[in-house]
Amino acid sequence: MAHVETATESAPNGAASGGEVLSIQQRRWRKFRSFGRGYYSLLLLVGAYVLSFFLPLLVNNRALVVHYNGRTYFPAVRDLLDLPLVGQLGGTPFLSGEELGQVGNKSECDYRALKRQYQAEGKGNYVIMPPYPFGPIEDISVEGNEPFAPPLSRTEFGDVHLFGTDDRGRDVFARMAYGFQISFSFALLVATLSYLIGVPLGAVMGYFGRWFDLLMQRFMEIWGSLPFLFLIIIVVSIVRPSFFVLVLLLVLFSWLGIAQQMRAQFYREKTRDYTAAAISIGVPTRRVLLRHILPNSLVPIITFFPFAIVGDIGALVSLDFLGFGLAPPTPSWGEMVSIGMENLTSGYWWLVLVPLGALFVTLMLVVFIGEAVREAFDPKTFSRLR
Amino acid sequence: MVEYFVRRLLLTIPTFLGSTFVVFLVVQLAPGGPLEQQIQALKRGGETAGAGLVGEQALPKDAIEELKRFYGFDKPIWQRYLIWLGVMKREAKSYRITPGKPRLVGDNERLILVPMGKSFALRNADDPSKPVGNWQWRQENDPETGAIRYRVYREAYSGIFTGDFGRSYRFRKPVMELIAERLPVSIQFGIISFVLSYAISVYLGVQKALRHNTPFDFATSSAVFMTYSIPGWAIGAVLLVLLATDRFFPIFPLGGFEDPLYAELTFFEKIWDRAYHFVLPTIAYTAGSFALLTMLMKNSLIDTLSSDYIRTAFAKGIREQRVIWLHAMRNSIIPITANIGYVIGIFFAGSYLIERVFDIQGIGQLSFEALVARDYPIVFAFTVISVVVSLIGSILSDLALAVIDPRIRFK
Predict the structure, then answer these.
(1) Domain ranges within chain B, ordered by starting residue
(2) Residue A79 C-beta-side C-alpha neighbours within 13 Å
(3) DSSP output for A269-320
(4) pTM of the predicted protein model
(5) N or C: which end of chain A has fewer CB within 10 A?
(6) CATH class of the domain comprising B175-404
(7) pLDDT tens sequence across B77-93
């Protein structure tokens, strides 16, 4: 489709941009940037997501720097290097309290207490805490943390819980921030993987057709009529899934729409003249598929990508809300909401409003981006005749 | 055309079988099923009664056999599926019997096993001349001692094709009864929000299209995007906190479907009470689908408005309202009609999250709780209903399209 539109649309658009010749991608990018709402949403979201990888340095109960008896430790940096799948590149972030001079504390060091201790001792040891000194998982077992502390409340040592704490005394702001990273990574992974499965499958179904298409269509019809949230809940209730297993579970159901969309596109594009021309001059099938048809079929699913992200984040939060999502104590928005809803009459409103506020903002940004992308890829200009 | 729809209907049968079988397989193969749960419960019960001395041996094999038979777990899975469908006979009633002693079966029928040569014959205990119907007997071994014992049973086709969805394990009631109790609530919400979301989205879509790129368009777009991106239950949760808890504005009830004293209210109070409880959940239900429909409506009307026949209509001097609502609408409404089936499916399948948030005892809650408790008959009944709804929904979409657009010819 895009092929044809390029021919018809290039003249007026090219002229409008002062005679310089722009490729279709450049024109799309320019059009995208002209939608301020979408463009700034993109900048904000990409910025926030990149920043979220450095969360261990910004929001953490482990200190950035500990200087103790001439030795310097960087527990938060080790946290930062603790990567999923890859492992702990910087060694374990665990340092016991005794190692750093907290007498009798063999478990994880309480760095906020350590800071107070060093200040009181005045021996030249020091602790530098991250800007927000609470972690997402530390709970009531750490001295000073109270369950259901309201927003802006101070601990007995003067540290402020920005958005209060949950039922186990865990800091809501920290959990919200880490929850963003997890939800967004989750949605990106699910969407990308389902595209990687759906696009080639749909392409093969649409282009080659025949028995493969027939068979797959029946299969997809069955698969599509399954109550998928229901099935995921069944599976999750048997095996408490890790992050990646849950990703795969969602991919299992979300590739379907992509494949159907791609199938329809390839089915239509293979009858076009340019495809016939390419085949007749002897272009190999692989090249016809990848170089000729694919670029012309991608537009609808590219514009759908942001909306796929929206759906996947929503699905994760819904599953977490029901208690069938990521295994605790993973910071998750849905879990916070469910705690808040269970205690609705007790007035722990921040447990509902904070994570859902974060969800609203994130999803709004993604939808704004999606809307701008859609407009940018749409060659039609609105005109009303009357 | 008729042929097309008949074929579509017939094609739903293999799809139905396929998807119910998948669910059946997943649910039945999942560990921690009702059998295991019952055994656990029996063991726990035994422990408390028997002063902690009872271990693995506590549950007699006999009892396990009994449980297996009750749940149908003594048969391979494909047989269980066929039985569940109702195309294979199942042991509908089954009782132990001692030869020579009458056994009460059913309501007031008494059977007796009388010795006849080396074997036995089954007779009606009260009137030997009366036929025993389709009661049969068989010999089996006690799993515990290996001793020979006897059993009378009756086989029958009873499954979803005969309208029998089985009995709930937990409620000890036929599933259909349970669903019938809960369905009205869910249907009321479904219908109201279905009508509302179409009414709002058509009107709003038209207004947005007519005032494209005006402040009105931008303002409503934000609202539409918000409801599009956020799951309906989340909107419901926020509304509940803001408009029902004491912390903010306690205007609406905290949940539920009606006042606890509903039965004592007068007629008008009843209507008011319903409406009062309906507001927030209805918003949550409607929000999910109205955004998509509104945008579809807007975009397709914009497309139509720039076509030549609309220009012609305006050129002829027809009033604007008439052009829009009669000329343009006919074409613009097609895409949102195509979504009817999808929207119906959403109201049905997505409802348990909203029902959970608002604590509405509808079928969504019922099936969710059944899922957690592994109450299979309810889970399967819900699956059947939702698969059927989604299949019928997609046919309905096509049908609606064919009705509204005479150019569409399905082959």
Answers:
(1) 31-88, 90-156, 175-404
(2) 24
(3) HTTSHHHHHHHHTT--HHHIIIIIIHHHHHHHHHHHHHHHHHHHHHHHHHHH
(4) 0.82
(5) C
(6) mainly alpha
(7) 888 888 888 777 777 77
Distance from B75 to chain A by nearest Cα, in Å? 22
- Asked whether the beta carbons of B341 and B279 are under 8 A apart, the reply is no
pLDDT at position B50, please? 42
**3-state class of A22 per DSSP?**
coil
B241·A353 Cβ contact <8 A: yes
For strand A65-68 and strand A126-128, is the pairing parallel, antiparallel, or unpaired?
A: antiparallel
CA A374, CA A243: separation in Å to the nearest integer?
31
**pLDDT tens per residue, range A143-194:** 778 888 888 888 877 788 888 888 888 889 999 999 999 999 999 999 999 9
pLDDT tens for A51-83 read 999 888 898 888 888 888 888 888 888 888 877
Number of neighbouring beta carbons within 10 Å of residue B398:
18
> What is the sign, positive or negative, of the torsion defined by CA atoms of A162, A166, A170, A176?
negative
The torsion defined by the Cα of B243, B245, B251 and B253, in degrees rounded to 10, comes to: 100
DSSP state letter for A155: P
Query: Tokens 């009303």 identify what position?
Result: A384
A120/chain B closest Cα distance in angstroms: 41
Across the interface, whether the CB atoms of B314 and A223 are under 8 A apart is answered no
Collapsing DSSP to helix, strand or coil, A132 comes out as strand
Structure tokens of B86?
Answer: 């109702």
Task: Scan residues 24-53 of A and list those with Cβ closer than 8 Å to B.
Answer: none
Q: Could you tell me which residues are beta bridge partners of residue A128?
A: A65
* One-character DSSP codes across A335-357: HHHHHHHHTGGGT-HHHHHHHHH
Q: What is the DSSP letter of B206?
A: H
Beta bridge partners of B247: none
- Cα–Cα nearest to B203, from B340, B336, B344: B336
